[in-house]
C-alpha cells in the first residue's frame, strides 16, 4: 500500500468516527429531552388501564412489582396484576383485575401483534366502548378458548395471540 492510500483510509475512518460521535450525541440529547414525556405518557396509559380494568374503583394503590389494589371509598374491591404473555411477535403486557375469584377486567397496555390479526385483541367495535375480545373475560371464574372446550371466542386467524392472552388470564386466576 502506498502512503497515499493509507492516508485516504485514515481520512475516511476519521470522517466515519466523527459522524458516529455526532449521531451518538444527537441520540443522547434526544433521549434526555423525550424521556420525561415518554414516562409521563406511560404513566397516563397505566392509570387509564387501571380504570378500565376495575371501572368501579375511585382510587388505586401501587403495591410495587406490578401489583395494585383497586379501592372504592378506601376499601379494597379488587387486585390488579401486570402480566406478560408470549404473543405471536413479542410479549403482550396486560393488566388483569380479579376479585373473589372472578375476573373484573383485562386491559392490554402494550403489544406488537400483527395489525389486522392479533392486534384485533384491542379492537373496539363501532358503538361499543371496550374491546370485544377482552370483554368476554369479565365475570368469569375460569377461562379457556372454545376450541379447547372453554368459553372464550378466539380472534379469527390469531389463535396464538388469543391463546396467549387466555392462558395468561387463566394462570392469574389460578394464583
Would you give an account of this structure?
With 175 residues, this protein is of the alpha+beta class. 41% of the residues lie in helices and 24% in strands. The protein has helices at 3-53, 132-135, 159-174; strands spanning 59-64, 67-72, 75-86, 91-99, 102-110. The chain has a 5-stranded antiparallel sheet with strand order 1-2-3-4-5. The longest helix is centred in the N-terminal third of the chain and has 51 residues, at 3-53.
Which helices and strands occur, and which strands form pairs?
Elements: H1 3-53, E1 59-64, E2 67-72, E3 75-86, E4 91-99, E5 102-110, H2 132-135, H3 159-174
Antiparallel strand pairs: 1-2, 2-3, 3-4, 4-5
Structural class: alpha+beta
SS element count, helices = 3
3D shape = elongated
Bin the strand percentage: 15-25%
The rounded distance between the terminal residues' Cα atoms is: 69 Å
Biggest pleated sheet: 5 strands, antiparallel
Summarize it.
The chain is an alpha+beta fold and 175 residues long. The chain contains three helices and five strands.
Keywords:
single chain, 175 residues, alpha+beta, 24% strand
